[in-house]
UniProtKB/TrEMBL annotation:
Organism, scientific name: Prunus avium (Cherry)
A Gene Ontology BP annotation from the UniProt entry: DNA integration
Gene expressing this chain: LOC110755796
Gene3D superfamilies attached to this UniProt entry: 1.10.340.70, 3.30.70.270, HIV Type 1 Reverse Transcriptase, subunit A, domain 1, Ribonuclease H-like superfamily/Ribonuclease H
An example Gene Ontology molecular-function term: RNA-DNA hybrid ribonuclease activity
Protein name: Uncharacterized protein LOC110755796
Length: 942
């Protein structure tokens, strides 16, 4: 429903009839207001003040048809009984509709509906008809209604709007004459039917939408938006609005459509349209809906709480987590806690403060945030797919940048993805979706902010002040020699130890590694290293010491920046303070682990030694490696057909041309990168390795004329390369070129031209046809492989047999090898150019797969047998369809074809081809007859 959101003023269209008025916005300037009033008074005929002012849409333009399904029998509802008040209201309504011509009396109707009286909110009765049975018999009209989201987006951002509503819009369309009596209804006074389209019919909305789409076809989307009978005229600037209204009013006059003046508002800047607040600023939530949420009472039942959990909000699981906890005990043990009260109030505040939305501009990037939380781990891939489906117009028109720290792009591209993820990846490939990590805050900026706002005089609660008498811990006297002490501790499963390096003022270093015979934590080991280093420095007579460690905890505890809460840490800290008091000055600071690597290595060495014997470990310094370096040559690869796809899948880089980028995204949806190798998802096989054209020619050459090659045709050759797991963009074209260049394949040139060259041989009895067919194939392969070396056929026979075993047969759809052993053979080309199954080969998994194939081999053989039978039937049908049936009767005279066995050898090639005539004396079966010659002798064989 359309409704303005600002104050309106009424304007009488005719001063002699003040009750006939329209409403306009109060924010118009004086000049524009005067123009509006003049325009509306000049076009007052488009408004209807009663049903008599509605001429109706011409039936030549549109009329409503029911299209009742013949499978449904007509239903006549039994009349219902009402009280006297309802009967009186029903009589008045019927009289009014009869007067204006909306209804007429019906005679012998097939369908009959009851009248239902409903009390109106403003008082009085309204009559409806119960067309439930009739609606069931009518198929749904699939004419699409506009998407509300698209209408709202298209309306936002305009300076001036006008909201209009048709006067009893459905009743302005006439019924088709043949369907008029099907909408008959019963009253206490008689039977009536509608001449116009009534309310309550199943497809009435679709019919009306079809009408407005037809008459406002050029305006919808530019200056108008229409949703059934709700119409809106929009203008970017106020100066254009009256011109846009004039065009619409002209169309209303041409098609005799009338508006309801009480539901129209002209010249407003904002209003409610289809449940949203629309203005030039953007899109806002409906205040009525927000008020209903704010006034919502505290839920008391399980159903009320479940309605809260179903709200579609950002991070809904985090906001609704207390509600889920309240439902744990079931509907009879609901625990509504103070946490639930706070979450309920927070949810109302969040929903009640809906932000202002603005429609995206063309070419603008849209950001989609996906994340997981502590209370819920969402299905990020599903969330992205559902978002793409719900927001499909935005995904199609804009580049979507998905900001998430989860590896979604890798999930959609990894080979072990399930079928569902593969389907989702192809579905998202239609859109321009880019995955980017969430930008992190600048750590330095946060540190500077804290440093500037933290008072230097304030002391942290719980901080342990340094003991009195402790020497200066921050300033060293440069005139006195200073020793540098690096300390580190180590605690692991092998043992515990400490390492320290004491550097004297003259640069001499003393290395010390200690292994503990007792268990310590890492922090305790750090303190032990510090204490040992301080004792060593004291024994050397050091006055000032600079202590370096990579442990943040004990450094800040010694400087009193951190508090030592553990009893063990407190004891170690006291011991450290006692030793530090014996120095004139000291400095302790935290360094990077890389700057403390020497002491760290000593600590790890000490903790790894598992005996109690002290030792010295000599360290040899090698000037050069013990192995001879091997020269490496750089190989330069040129761009191939795979390069754009590979770069896009690995780095997300697209061409600058938008059309090329869009094509590349579509194309890349069926490709995947596994171990830095590009594979294509196939329809007949799982993954096909992508190779270059040069590699592809090697694959074709090996399959065509290699060890197991059978010199097959181009289409078969390409199909075999597919089935072996290889793909490149010019596969079929290269296969055609290779077959054309093959000398052995071109020897069949005469056969293709139907020139039969064969050796003459005497006829012989028919033997096993299948054996003959296989022998013919073997001979054909041997001839191609032997070339001129005809005597070497025994050596080439195994290769010919292997070519047959690994070739797919059209009759079975399988290779003979797979039907015998349950899996495909590894052909030589897969050794020269590795395929997917050789790349990812694992012995245990392969053995399990072979065992499973053997278990399923019977089913595979059964399916191949069924395909073979179907193939034989197709061949038989093809042959029979070209044979003209010819039958003979007993007594007919026929000629018999001369065969090589019956031909006279002295006659030569010019001898007769037919002999006879013969008389048919018996019919043995179809096309088989018993013959007798003119001499009266009967032939021995039919």
């Amino acid at each position: 429903m359309t409704q303005p959101a600002e104050d309106l003023e009424t304007v009488a269209l005719d001063e002699s009839q003040p009750d006939r008025y329209v409403r306009i916005g109060t924010m118009l300037n004086a000049t524009l207001r005067a123009e509006f009033i003049q325009f509306l008074r000049r076009n007052s005929e488009v408004f209807a003040w009663s049903y008599n002012d509605m001429p109706g849409i011409s039936p030549d333009i549109i009329s409503h048809k029911l299209s009742i399904s013949p499978a449904f029998k007509p239903i006549r509802q039994k009349p219902r009984s009402y009280d006297a008040e309802r009967y009186e209201a029903m009589k008045n309504e019927v009289d009014k509709l009869m007067t204006i011509g909306f209804i007429r009396e019906a005679v012998y109707p097939d369908w009959l509906a009851n009248s239902v009286m409903v009390w109106k909110a403003k008082g009085g009765w309204r009559m409806f008809q119960d067309y439930t049975d009739l609606n069931k018999a009518c198929p749904k009209d699939s004419f699409p209604l506009p998407r509300i989201d698209e209408l709202v987006d298209a309306t936002a951002g305009h300076e001036l709007l006008s909201f209009m509503d048709a006067y009893s819009g459905y009743n302005q369309i006439f019924m088709h004459p043949a369907d008029s009596e099907h909408k008959a209804f019963i009253t206490d006074k008689g039977l009536y039917c509608y001449n116009v389209m009534p309310f309550g019919l199943k497809n009435a909305g679709a019919t009306y939408q079809r009408l407005v789409n037809r008459i406002f076809a050029e305006q919808i989307g530019s200056t108008m938006e229409v949703y059934v009978d709700d119409m809106l005229v929009k203008s970017r600037t106020a100066d254009e609005h009256l011109a846009d209204l004039a065009i619409m009013f002209g169309i209303l006059k041409d098609y005799r459509m009338r508006l309801n003046p009480t539901k129209c508002a002209f010249g407003v800047s904002s209003g409610r349209f289809l449940g949203f607040m629309i203005s030039q600023r953007g899109i806002e939530a409906n205040p009525d809906k927000i008020k209903a949420i704010i006034d919502m009472e505290v839920p008391k039942t399980q159903k009320d709480i479940q309605s809260l959990t179903g709200r579609v909000t950002s991070r809904a699981t985090d906001k609704c987590a207390p509600f889920f906890k309240a439902l744990i005990g079931g509907k009879h043990h609901i625990e509504w806690t103070a946490e639930c009260d706070k979450a309920f109030q927070d949810l109302k505040d969040y929903i009640g403060k809906a932000p202002l939305l603005s429609k995206p501009l063309p070419g603008e990037f849209l950001f989609l945030y996906l994340s997981v939380s502590n209370t819920a781990v969402s299905s990020l891939a599903l969330a992205l797919v559902v978002s793409a489906r719900r927001l499909q117009p935005y995904f199609q028109a804009h580049t979507i940048v998905v900001l998430t720290n989860q590896p979604l792009r890798q999930v959609f591209q990894k080979p072990e993805t399930s079928g569902r993820l593969v389907k989702w990846a192809i579905e998202l490939g239609e859109f321009d979706v880019q995955f980017k990590p969430r930008p992190a805050e600048k750590g330095q900026a946060v540190a500077d902010f804290i440093a500037e706002l933290t008072p230097s005089e304030a002391s942290e609660p719980g901080k342990t002040p340094p003991p009195e008498g402790l020497p200066n811990g921050s300033r060293l006297d440069q005139s006195i020699p200073i020793c540098i002490l690096h300390v580190d501790g180590s605690a692991n499963q092998q043992g515990c130890g400490a390492g320290l390096v004491l550097t004297a003022p003259d640069g001499a270093k003393m290395e010390y590694a200690i292994r503990f015979s007792f268990r310590t934590s890492n922090n305790e080991a750090e303190y032990e290293a510090l204490l040992a280093g301080l004792r060593l420095a004291k024994s050397m007579g050091t006055k000032q010491v600079s202590i370096h460690s990579d442990s943040q905890l004990f450094v800040n505890q010694v400087t009193a920046d951190f508090a030592a809460k553990d009893a063990s840490m407190t004891a170690y800290l006291s011991s450290a303070h006692l030793l530090l008091q014996q120095f004139k000055a000291y400095e302790i600071r935290q360094v990077l682990r890389s700057e403390n690597s020497h002491a760290d290595a000593l600590a790890r060495l000490a903790s790894a030694i598992n005996d109690k014997i002290g030792r010295k470990v000599p360290v040899e310094i090698l000037a050069q490696p013990s192995t001879t370096s091997v020269g490496i040559c750089t190989i330069q690869y040129e761009d191939t057909w795979m390069s754009p796809i590979y770069i896009y899948l690995t780095n997300g880089t697209l061409p600058k041309d938008k059309s090329q980028a869009r094509k590349l995204r579509y194309r890349s949806a069926r490709y995947i990168v596994i171990n830095d190798i590009l594979y294509k998802r196939g329809y007949t096989t799982s993954y096909m390795k992508c190779v270059t054209e040069e590699q592809g020619k090697y694959v074709l050459r090996e399959i065509h004329s290699g060890v197991c090659g059978d010199h097959s045709g181009s289409r078969s050759l390409a199909h075999k390369a597919f089935r072996q797991g290889y793909y490149w963009s010019s596969m079929y074209r290269d296969a055609i070129a290779m077959v054309k260049k093959c000398d052995k394949c071109q020897r069949q040139f005469c056969t293709r031209l139907k020139i039969n060259l064969f050796f003459a041989s005497p006829a012989h009895p028919q033997s096993n046809g299948q054996v003959e067919a296989v022998n013919k194939i073997i001979k054909k392969l041997l001839k191609r492989q032997l070339n001129s070396a005809k005597g070497a056929w025994p050596e080439k026979l195994p290769e010919a047999l292997w070519a047959i075993r690994m070739s797919y047969r059209t009759s079975t759809g399988e290779t003979p090898f797979s039907l015998a052993f349950g899996s495909e053979v590894v052909v030589p080309v897969e050794i020269g150019e590795s395929s997917y199954r050789t790349e990812v080969f694992e012995p245990k998994a392969n053995e399990a797969a072979l065992a499973l194939s053997l278990d399923l081999i019977e089913e595979r053989r059964t399916a191949a047998n069924l395909r073979n039978e179907a193939y034989k039937q197709r061949v038989s049908w093809y042959y029979d369809s070209r044979v003209k049936p010819r039958s003979f009767r007993i007594g007919d005279w026929v000629m018999r074809k001369v065969s090589l066995a019956t031909k006279n050898p002295t006659e030569g090639i010019l001898g007769p081809s037919w002999e006879g005539p013969y008389e048919v004396i018996g019919i043995l079966r179809s096309s088989t007859y018993k013959l007798r010659g003119t001499d009266g002798k009967t032939l021995g064989h039919p």
